[in-house]
Amino acid sequence: MARRSTPSSTGSPTGPRNRTPQPVRLRRRTFGDFVKAFLAFVALLALVVGVPGALAVEVGWPLPSEAPSLDWLQQEMTVTTFLHILTVVVWLAWAQFTACVLVEVKAAVSGVGVPGRVPGSGPSQLLARQLVAALLLVGATAASFTPGLSQLGHGIEGNQKATVAAAQATPGLFAQQQEQAASTAAALAEQASHAQADADSGTVRAGATKFYRIQPPEGRHHDSLWEVAQRHLGDGRRYKEIYQLNKDRVQPDGSRLSEASLIRPGWIMEMPGDARGGDLVEMPDAGAAVSPEVQQQIHDYAKSGDQAKSGDHAQGGGAGAAQVSLPAQRPAGDAAQQHGQTSATDSADSGDQAFGLPEALLGAPLLAAGLLGALGRRRRQALWQSAIGAVGGRRGMEPPTPTGDALDVQDALLVGADPEGVRLLDRSLRGLSAALADESRALPTVYAAWLSNGDLHLQLAQPAGKPPAPWQLGQDQTFWVLTRADAARYDDLDTAAPYPGLVSLGTMDDSRLLLNLEAVPGIVSLSGREADRAAVFASVAAELATNGWSDRMTITLVGFGEDLTPLAPNRLRHLDGIEALVEAMEAETRQRRGALGAAGHDSVLTGRTGPAQHTRWAPHLVLLAAQPSVEDAVKLAELAADASRLGIGYLVGTEDGRLPGAAWEMEISGDGTLRAPLLGLELAAQMLPVAQQRAVVELFVQADPEHGPDGPTTTPPFLVDISEQGRPAVYARLVGSYEIIGLDAPEDERSALLHEALALLLLHREGVHPRVLSSALWPRGVTDDVRDALVERLRAWLGTDPDGSPRLTADTSGRLTLARSVVSDLDVLRSLYHEATQGKGVDSRVVRGRLLTDALVLVRGPLLADRAEGRYRWLTHEIVDAQLPLLVADIGLALSEFHLEKGRAEQAIEALNAAVRTASDDERLWHELLRATHATGDTDRLTALAADLVGRSGARGLPPRTEALLDELLPTWRDGVAAAG
């Protein structure tokens, strides 16, 4: 049978390019190899034979010849007794090392790959493995004993996995069954055959075509194309050749290969002509050492190669992709794709890049949503701290307006963020946890999550049975899938976040990958240029610190990220070096092991479900950007060997891709591609470059309530002329019901959009980026022509001033700004309060009273009280909803003080009640209302007010300071409230 050509061999631009088959290179033994082998033999002889011999000759049998009596325990400790005790310790150490040697020799000779760990062996087994490898290196077949064995005697130069944690390596994210125990054995041969290649011709005869049958994961890890290529082609990187030969061909179980990492036991792989190895099968004949069933399967599969070449394969294998349920469709969280990436891509395609927003954040919807939410919380915290007063007096309610790169980054966050996607992801994961707890089932270990076309795919480490409804099984038993429609049915649940360690790495085939760092069985390594690695590390750190699907976690940064800690001071901590990290993680590992044992849990996942839900099971994720030394890497590998059970994850950077102990290896290239060949991944990486890191941090630092003189100010961003001569041309009422004075009503079908766009511009007098405007009005995405048409329609509706200048213009950066003749009642409200407290009202009591009274009259309710459901969702990113109640409360308090200075308690009560209608949660208003009511001398009225306050407080009860004030003003208030109740 003629060998089937691949896309690369026929000149097709699609698919990975095939390498020209090369003969397997057999490494020649050098004189140095023999020297190492001799020294290893001498060392093994001395340790295994010499040590017990020396002990027997010099010390003799250290234990007593008969059972000791109680008197023996009371005897004085002599030098001889101490030597005997020390001898016993040495005998035990020798026995452990000898056991390690026997295990390593048996594994090498039998070909079962890297063996399991001898309990408590640690460095002893590593030393035994290196000595055995060096000794066997000179043997004629040593290279075939274990994967990469010939490299173990060469330190880190051979790209080996020679550490204690190497046994934890996982061959692929898409493996059906993953073993987290210590065995990564090479596949056992199901058939034996002899291959004969026709080297003189460019094809392979039908009788010489070679095939490999994927082996089941019995007692070892699931087979992978990388391992197959490593064993039979001499280079794991040639897995792509095998993939191209077999892509989209029908397998015996009826499915097809569409991803290089998606292979199943029993599948048949056609191999390149230079493949070698005892577990390959030639085109079977009657004398082949395989069962008739397997013969027929391989015959049928061989025929599919010609069919794929002439028919199905030429069509691109669309059917095959459809049969594999893992994301080969459109990406990532539906809203994430449409809201963030789609609109960003549309704009870029149409030349909108002149606006200069950072594309890295535009294409990271989950990261942007987390940062935006955390920034909003930080700004609200600053507002409330300002409201209760600060040292040196009030610092105001107006956060600094970002400029330059910080403004661009803020706009990019507003455009790229997908808070709806984050909310659905969080509710889906918590809902799964609650459903499993109701069924008394443990949480399964999840290696990764894919967001694809709005659906959520969880990839399990091993099958965990049928998922609870509405979850469904995916392409196999290791995938649980939840559709977007089913996810929308979940409500907020009071349960612990089950998988807080999920973090976005990038997109592949339009699907977004989130890796669960705390579940990886060992260390994840990342190689590449320092700047590229730093951008990936920063993205991971920022998303973990601010994501919306976690409760608590600790993120330790080493070698980078000291300036990132302002993003989440309670989560992020920075250590100076690896030595401090190792010391801290050794203590953390011991503590977690002890806590798990005391609680009776197998892993942290057990503690996150059911009635326990211990907060101490929050993950601890270590991000180490600097490459550790070999010794430090071994220490980290030993710590990481049990880390996934303890909820600890390690992401470690390397310069050359060689990190001892790495379970999963990734590489970031200069073009932003994240590759993990062993896992079959090639992602468009999610990154946060240095310039954007600094701009993001600047936003958080400016919002910090403890920030210096550049913190919140008392001066509004836009002051209006409140005199009679300053009457605006267009006046919009936003506080209360939305009304516009000075403009004709727009067309009914476009009225809602125009009103919403105007409200956004009125709340941002500094200007609004067109892409921010479009993402606010159309969260699911919109084309540029529709957006531009709306802007032109809005410009025409607003009209021009008497001097002919348009009331809607664009500044040099392209941001849309309103003319000063377009004013809102919120602008007037801020200006009146500012003038009363810092302007003319400071020197004139009469002016201050009039200005404060006029301001309070403007308050007709909450902001945009009659907003339509489903619109104005962008207000969730704003702090104006928090600013307005505080401003109203300040006005009410100032006017109350104004009246109480003259003993007018009733007028003070009236002003406070007017403010309470808008700012009912402000405790300051209630305190002043109690004082003003007390000033009237009406005890019954004060008792009724106390009862009203108790009723409003509900089950929470009155705040402590309110209770203390009532105790001072009305000591019998509890009796009066009880009587009233």
Textual characterization of the structure:
The chain is of the alpha/beta class and 981 residues long. Among the domains are: 43-60 and 88-106, no CATH class; 223-273, no CATH class; 521-700, Rossmann fold, CATH 3.40.50.300; 730-877, no CATH class. The protein contains 31 helices and 22 strands. A 14-stranded mixed sheet has the order 6-7-5-4-9-8-17-16-15-10-14-13-11-12. Strand 16 and strand 17 (681-685) form a beta hairpin. Helix 11 (365-387) runs parallel beside helix 20 (690-703). The radius of gyration is 35 Å and the shape is globular. The termini are far apart. 47% of the residues are buried. Residues 1-27, 139-207, 284-288, 307-355 and 390-395 have low confidence and may be disordered.
Q: What's the CATH class of the domain at 521-700, please?
A: Alpha Beta
Provide the spatial order of strands within the biggest beta sheet. 6-7-5-4-9-8-17-16-15-10-14-13-11-12
Backbone shape:
globular
Radius of gyration: 35 Å
Instruction: Give the helix/strand class.
Output: alpha/beta
Architecture (CATH level 2) name of the domain at 521-700:
3-Layer(aba) Sandwich
Determine the strand fraction and express it as a percent band.
5-15%
Tally of separate helices = 31
Number of strand elements: 22
CATH fold-level topology of the domain at 521-700: Rossmann fold
Distance between the termini: 94 Å
Biased composition (Low complexity): 1-17
Domain Bacterial transcriptional activator: 824-970
Region (Disordered): 1-23, 303-352
InterPro entries: Bact_Kbp, BTAD, TPR-like_helical_dom_sf
